[in-house]
Amino acid sequence: MLDLVVTYWVRLISALIAGGPAGLKAAEDARRAAEAKAAEEARRAAEAKAAEEARRAAEAKTAEDARRAAEAKAAEDARRAAEAKAAEDARRAAEAKAAKEARRVAKTKAAEDAPRVAKSKAAEGARSAAATHPAAPPADLRLIKGIVAKPRTRAASQKRTP
To answer: Which of 1-5, 30-34, 102-106, 145-149 is predicted least confidently?
Structure first.
Protein backbone atom coordinates (compact mmCIF):
# COMPACT_ATOMS: atom_id res chain seq x y z
CA MET A 1 0.00 0.00 0.00
CA LEU A 2 2.85 2.31 0.78
CA ASP A 3 4.25 1.79 -2.70
CA LEU A 4 0.95 2.93 -4.17
CA VAL A 5 0.97 6.06 -2.05
CA VAL A 6 4.53 6.80 -3.08
CA THR A 7 3.66 6.19 -6.71
CA TYR A 8 0.45 8.24 -6.78
CA TRP A 9 1.13 10.97 -4.17
CA VAL A 10 1.15 13.66 -6.80
CA ARG A 11 -2.33 12.77 -7.99
CA LEU A 12 -3.58 12.53 -4.43
CA ILE A 13 -2.35 15.96 -3.48
CA SER A 14 -3.55 17.59 -6.66
CA ALA A 15 -6.98 15.96 -6.21
CA LEU A 16 -7.21 17.32 -2.65
CA ILE A 17 -6.24 20.78 -3.77
CA ALA A 18 -8.49 20.88 -6.81
CA GLY A 19 -11.66 19.27 -5.64
CA GLY A 20 -11.82 19.00 -1.94
CA PRO A 21 -13.79 15.98 -0.75
CA ALA A 22 -14.99 15.15 -4.28
CA GLY A 23 -11.42 15.26 -5.52
CA LEU A 24 -10.45 13.08 -2.58
CA LYS A 25 -13.09 10.54 -3.62
CA ALA A 26 -11.83 10.56 -7.20
CA ALA A 27 -8.29 10.07 -5.92
CA GLU A 28 -9.45 7.21 -3.70
CA ASP A 29 -11.20 5.62 -6.69
CA ALA A 30 -8.08 5.99 -8.78
CA ARG A 31 -6.00 4.46 -5.98
CA ARG A 32 -8.40 1.53 -5.68
CA ALA A 33 -8.39 1.02 -9.45
CA ALA A 34 -4.58 1.10 -9.45
CA GLU A 35 -4.51 -1.35 -6.56
CA ALA A 36 -6.94 -3.67 -8.34
CA LYS A 37 -4.93 -3.47 -11.54
CA ALA A 38 -1.66 -4.15 -9.69
CA ALA A 39 -3.28 -7.02 -7.78
CA GLU A 40 -4.64 -8.50 -11.01
CA GLU A 41 -1.22 -8.22 -12.69
CA ALA A 42 0.45 -9.80 -9.65
CA ARG A 43 -2.13 -12.58 -9.64
CA ARG A 44 -1.62 -13.24 -13.35
CA ALA A 45 2.17 -13.21 -12.93
CA ALA A 46 1.91 -15.59 -9.97
CA GLU A 47 -0.40 -17.88 -11.95
CA ALA A 48 1.95 -17.86 -14.93
CA LYS A 49 4.94 -18.53 -12.68
CA ALA A 50 3.10 -21.35 -10.89
CA ALA A 51 1.97 -22.83 -14.21
CA GLU A 52 5.54 -22.67 -15.56
CA GLU A 53 6.92 -24.28 -12.40
CA ALA A 54 4.25 -27.01 -12.56
CA ARG A 55 5.09 -27.62 -16.24
CA ARG A 56 8.81 -27.84 -15.47
CA ALA A 57 8.15 -30.16 -12.52
CA ALA A 58 5.93 -32.38 -14.68
CA GLU A 59 8.60 -32.47 -17.42
CA ALA A 60 11.29 -33.33 -14.87
CA LYS A 61 9.10 -36.05 -13.35
CA THR A 62 8.29 -37.48 -16.78
CA ALA A 63 11.97 -37.44 -17.77
CA GLU A 64 12.96 -39.12 -14.49
CA ASP A 65 10.23 -41.77 -14.91
CA ALA A 66 11.38 -42.42 -18.48
CA ARG A 67 15.01 -42.68 -17.34
CA ARG A 68 14.09 -45.12 -14.57
CA ALA A 69 11.98 -47.20 -16.96
CA ALA A 70 14.85 -47.31 -19.47
CA GLU A 71 17.28 -48.30 -16.71
CA ALA A 72 14.95 -51.05 -15.50
CA LYS A 73 14.45 -52.33 -19.06
CA ALA A 74 18.19 -52.31 -19.72
CA ALA A 75 18.86 -54.12 -16.45
CA GLU A 76 16.20 -56.73 -17.23
CA ASP A 77 17.57 -57.22 -20.76
CA ALA A 78 21.10 -57.60 -19.37
CA ARG A 79 19.87 -60.10 -16.77
CA ARG A 80 18.06 -62.16 -19.41
CA ALA A 81 21.10 -62.10 -21.71
CA ALA A 82 23.35 -63.19 -18.83
CA GLU A 83 20.93 -66.02 -17.95
CA ALA A 84 20.80 -67.18 -21.56
CA LYS A 85 24.60 -67.05 -21.86
CA ALA A 86 25.04 -68.94 -18.59
CA ALA A 87 22.53 -71.59 -19.69
CA GLU A 88 24.26 -71.97 -23.06
CA ASP A 89 27.68 -72.19 -21.39
CA ALA A 90 26.38 -74.81 -18.95
CA ARG A 91 24.84 -76.81 -21.81
CA ARG A 92 28.09 -76.72 -23.79
CA ALA A 93 30.12 -77.69 -20.73
CA ALA A 94 27.75 -80.61 -20.03
CA GLU A 95 28.01 -81.74 -23.66
CA ALA A 96 31.80 -81.52 -23.58
CA LYS A 97 31.93 -83.43 -20.29
CA ALA A 98 29.58 -86.12 -21.59
CA ALA A 99 31.62 -86.47 -24.81
CA LYS A 100 34.86 -86.70 -22.84
CA GLU A 101 33.37 -89.34 -20.53
CA ALA A 102 32.07 -91.31 -23.53
CA ARG A 103 35.53 -91.23 -25.15
CA ARG A 104 37.14 -92.38 -21.90
CA VAL A 105 34.65 -95.24 -21.49
CA ALA A 106 35.06 -96.28 -25.14
CA LYS A 107 38.84 -96.21 -24.82
CA THR A 108 38.73 -98.29 -21.62
CA LYS A 109 36.30 -100.76 -23.15
CA ALA A 110 38.43 -101.06 -26.30
CA ALA A 111 41.54 -101.67 -24.18
CA GLU A 112 39.71 -104.35 -22.20
CA ASP A 113 38.25 -105.99 -25.30
CA ALA A 114 41.44 -105.91 -27.41
CA PRO A 115 43.06 -109.11 -26.06
CA ARG A 116 39.79 -111.04 -26.21
CA VAL A 117 39.09 -109.85 -29.77
CA ALA A 118 42.63 -110.72 -30.83
CA LYS A 119 42.32 -114.24 -29.36
CA SER A 120 38.90 -114.67 -30.92
CA LYS A 121 40.23 -113.62 -34.33
CA ALA A 122 43.22 -115.91 -33.95
CA ALA A 123 41.00 -118.86 -32.98
CA GLU A 124 38.65 -118.13 -35.86
CA GLY A 125 41.61 -117.96 -38.23
CA ALA A 126 42.95 -121.28 -36.92
CA ARG A 127 39.53 -122.93 -37.30
CA SER A 128 39.11 -121.70 -40.83
CA ALA A 129 42.67 -122.77 -41.67
CA ALA A 130 42.04 -126.23 -40.18
CA ALA A 131 38.80 -126.55 -42.10
CA THR A 132 40.34 -125.63 -45.42
CA HIS A 133 43.68 -127.47 -44.94
CA PRO A 134 43.24 -130.70 -42.98
CA ALA A 135 46.34 -131.71 -41.07
CA ALA A 136 48.27 -134.88 -41.77
CA PRO A 137 47.72 -137.69 -39.26
CA PRO A 138 49.97 -137.33 -36.26
CA ALA A 139 53.04 -139.38 -36.18
CA ASP A 140 52.97 -139.65 -32.47
CA LEU A 141 53.80 -143.11 -31.26
CA ARG A 142 51.32 -143.02 -28.50
CA LEU A 143 48.49 -142.77 -30.95
CA ILE A 144 49.84 -145.60 -33.00
CA LYS A 145 50.10 -147.82 -29.95
CA GLY A 146 46.56 -146.92 -28.95
CA ILE A 147 47.45 -144.80 -25.98
CA VAL A 148 45.22 -141.81 -26.01
CA ALA A 149 46.49 -138.64 -24.46
CA LYS A 150 44.37 -136.92 -21.87
CA PRO A 151 42.62 -133.84 -23.35
CA ARG A 152 43.92 -130.58 -22.03
CA THR A 153 41.56 -128.16 -20.37
CA ARG A 154 41.47 -124.59 -21.49
CA ALA A 155 42.74 -121.94 -19.21
CA ALA A 156 40.26 -119.36 -17.92
CA SER A 157 41.64 -116.74 -20.29
CA GLN A 158 41.21 -119.07 -23.31
CA LYS A 159 37.60 -120.02 -22.66
CA ARG A 160 35.10 -118.76 -25.15
CA THR A 161 32.60 -116.21 -24.08
CA PRO A 162 29.22 -116.23 -25.73
So the answer is: 145-149
- Rounded to 10 degrees, the C-alpha dihedral 65/70/74/79 comes to 30
Could you tell me if residue 103 is inside a domain? Answer: yes
Give how many domains the chain has, as a whole number.
Answer: 1
pLDDT reading at 134 higher than 60 = no
Residue 92 located in a structural domain: yes
> What whole-number distance in Å separates Cα of residue 18 and Cα of residue 154?
155
142 belongs to a structural domain = no
Query: Does 69 score more than 70 pLDDT?
Result: yes
Parent domain of 26: 2-128
User: What is the C-alpha separation between 115 and 157, in angstroms, rounded?
Assistant: 10
Please indicate, yes or no, if residue 119 is contained in any of the structural domains.
yes
Cβ contact 70:78 at 8 Å? no
C-alpha pair distances (Å), 103 with each of 97, 98, 99, 112, 114: 10, 9, 6, 14, 16
C-alpha 158/C-alpha 45 separation (Å) is: 113
> What is the model's pTM?
0.40
Query: Which run of H or of E encompasses 158?
Result: none
Flag whether pLDDT at 84 surpasses 70. yes
